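Quick one:
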Amino acid sequence: MINKYKILLSPGKYSPPNSFISIGLLAVCVALPVLLATYVYSPTVALITIGVVISLVGLIFFFDVRNFAIYIFPLIFFNTDHRLIFALVLLFFISFLAGRLQAGKLSISIVYPIVIGLIVLSGLWGVTNAYEVSEAQYLFRFNLLFPILVFVILFNLEPSNRSIEKTMRVICTFAALIGWASLIRYLIIGYTRVILGWVNFNPAGCFFGMILPFAIMSVLYEKNVGKKVRNWIILLGIFAGIFVTQSRAAYLTSFITMGIFAWKDRQVFKVMMPVFIAGALILPSLILYRLMMTFGMTSTPDWSSVGRVQIWLNSFELLPRYWLFGMGIDSYRYIYPINFPGSIVRAEHAHNVYLRWWFEYGLIGISAYFYIIIAVFIRAFKRVVEMRKENWNADDRLLLSLNIGFIASLAASMVDSPFHHPQVIILFWMFLAYQILLVRRSGKANE
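Output:
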């Protein structure tokens, strides 16, 4: 363990830190998860156990921060306890700082510093302007501050392309296990739209849709038979998760994925079409019924779609009052029913990420978000356009899969608010960091 600590990030020479720093970091790493598990609420055996396990497993990989990022941090996407999310983000940050101390690199680079600064400042304004400050503070930390912190860490950590690929593979593996378990639960018990480890099925559908392109890529271009079978099992598990969510936004992102992939390689039809056809035949209540409901072909009214349209129209009526400064984080749920008491559905939010950002952060916040999204998208998509199937390599396909997942998440966000769930928004900022790094390396390779 000490040897792992000594090498940290630097493959070359190192000068070990003094014993005080070493003991202090080890103490924090061991104690932090347990303290967080027992803080605020009454201690529970489950949370303490999780804290201890994370500490022990973390110590094996901890001081090699890249291994922590690959094998431990992805656990953040498959739990609903905010204290565990807090613990993993904080451990990741401590691991990163330990590496910088060891390597003697105390400076931290921030890409798009002005834009990110404006996003954070608009978030702080959204807290002070919020109708319910305590809830706004929670959302600011978990949906804005922590994701940006992860983005900054990954950008400075500069994981190799193979490390990014390993991280995505670990995430896909965990997701496949969740997808298979949720499908089995549905087949045995009959509970629909229940995704284990997720509170809300629509954000879960967006999450599965974001990682789907990487899983498809892993099946299409793996030549080893054993690994290809493994990748098929993972891919089908991710599809199982999408089907169980019954999220039409997730179905939409899946077709977007298929369309963009087909633009580069039509082999994707051989993977996705049989899966969708088989899924529709085997699980008609999960797929066909939901799609038929959208077009009014069932006896059950589609109040979800009707309610969304009403909320969007009413939101545009509200926007002239709040377009400049917003109304504060999570204030929509309180202000909307006051202005529209006759709404047919309860509006917790605007059911559109971009409208929600505008209402919560004001014009400066939404402009900053748009700037960084468009800037990264243009740089990555420009490289995707240049790719040719005849001569592309694993790095090109990795960037393609991340860019498609990025586009899919932006599309899903037009009809819901998945980015206001910690797991989804953290993955979104990870995709931003990964695309920036991959495009930068691709440009250097082509020089």
